[in-house]
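dude i think i finally got it to work??
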Amino acid sequence: MSLAAIGLVATPLIGCASRTEKPAMASAGAKPRMPKTGVPPQPQQLASIDRSISTPRGAPITEMEPPPDIFDAQILDLEFWLKPRTLEVIRPASNEKARLLYWKDGEVIDSAYQELCHLLRDVNGKKTAPIDPKLFETLWGTQAFIARYGIEQPLEILSGYRTAESNSRLREAGVPAARQSLHISGKAADIRVANLNSEVLGSLVRSFKQGGVGFYYRSGPRGGWIHADTGLQRTWKG
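look at this
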């Protein structure tokens, strides 16, 4: 089942945003797809994809990829979407962290939503703005999905909302940032999960079919990050 088939209930939010939510529901007659294999993937399968495999001289180099089922949010059933939603995040730029129950019994908990908006604020521009609730839905779904396979890690929010000025400064500094970035409208976040390969993370986010997904590969111990937004469905590598 995709998130597109899921609704949210009208809940007025004060201060950070006023938005409409509908309860998570399955489409009529839809049957959840189950994994093709009867054995769930193990954490080590999610943790890495080896792109520098040593092979005998002259032998073709192949990439090892994890089973496709672990990418597919469409296998989730209705029960997954009806349970309470707790999102755990870390914001390295401000050294903040929080674990917040923000959705329960079909309704968004306004105080938690406000705090999540603050955590995803423009740290450099020192400004908070409404964050699209669909984005939180994708972030929570991603975190809850991998927790089913033993990876219980907070989401690192590298970038959330940005003012237009902050976005321009990033562009001037050579940081990949679109001129009309969805970060400016509170509809995008750059995320990372410790010990989780960025391609696995991005492929999972993409399987929710809620918007764009950018794969930003970087070398080093911290690796790259994934851009997730609630705009048009598209994929790119930066």
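The first helix runs from residue 43 to 47.
im so relieved honestly
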